[in-house]
Structures
1.
Amino acid sequence: QVQLVETGGGLVEAGGSLRLSCAVSGLLSNIRAGSWYRQAPGQQRELVAQIYRDGRTDYGDSVKGRFTISKDDSKSAIDLQMNNLKPEDTAVYYCYIPSGYWGQGTQVTVSS
């Protein structure tokens, strides 16, 4: 059974940094690709960043230049380094891997 567990969320002041990690278990091979999404209260879930099998990455416009997604096969994890955080980054952050596997989410709150 594939399971995803996110850690690293918390409360941080604007301009600060957090690193989220998504530990994946139950896969029969290394993580091929993965994504981070977020959902703020009253908002739809939106794509924050994704990493492809070949290592290419894509980011949402609002986080480009501030967030970095990476994949660590030795830990079977997908990480999201978030720098220069803004209050509008406040949301529950979810990890996703194909096909159809979601984590439970971790809360990120950025105070102004």
2.
Amino acid sequence: QVQLVESGGGLVQPGGSLRLSCAASGIITSINVMAWYRQAPGNQRELVASITSDGSASYADSVKGRFTISRDNAKKTTYLQMNSLKPEDTAVYYCSVDRIDYKDPIPNKDPIPKMWFNLWGQGTQVTVSS
């Protein structure tokens, strides 16, 4: 099995910074696009940033120039560096992968290659408040 685990959320004052991490676990052979979404109370989940396997990044207009997405393919991890945080950035932040190739271990047999689409992490709370 595979899963995504986020970390790094917390409470920060306006103008402050936080760095979120999302690590994929399992016998993983490749990860396609990795992305960060967020959902504030009463709002729909929105795409914040995404990054392809070769490092091409894109951002929502609301975070351009303040947030930076990156990934370490060897560590199967994506990061979201958030600077100049505003109260309106307060939300639960979710990591997501559109496609992940992995191997499902079978006792006493060769692991079975599988794919998982639209994998999500459990979310991490980011609160920007004075």
3.
Amino acid sequence: QAQLEESGGGLVQAGGSLTVSCAASGGTFNKSPMGWFRQAPGKEREFVAVISWAVTGASTFYGDSVKGRFTISRDNAKNTVSLQMNSVKPEDTAVYYCVAARGGWGTWLHRAEEYQYWGQGTQVTVSS
């Protein structure tokens, strides 16, 4: 059974950096867009970033609130995807979920319903 498992969450000070990673297993994800969503307490789930499956020159796009600060990357050989978070802010505090989609690449990938696979999430807390 296909599974996604996040790691690397934790506590970081505002202005600092943190990387969260996701390992995919039990399935073939090297043709799937993979990305990240987050959800803070009392707030709706929010799109963070997504990356295509290309080995070189992969396409990416980001949610407006993280653009320019976060970078998504993937290693198809290792079935992993990572999110490098720089210049973090207290409002980045949330549970971060790794996601993968069976469908193709497109601008609709900011929508949570496009993703069939979800990890359990990893907590990221940014202190002020």
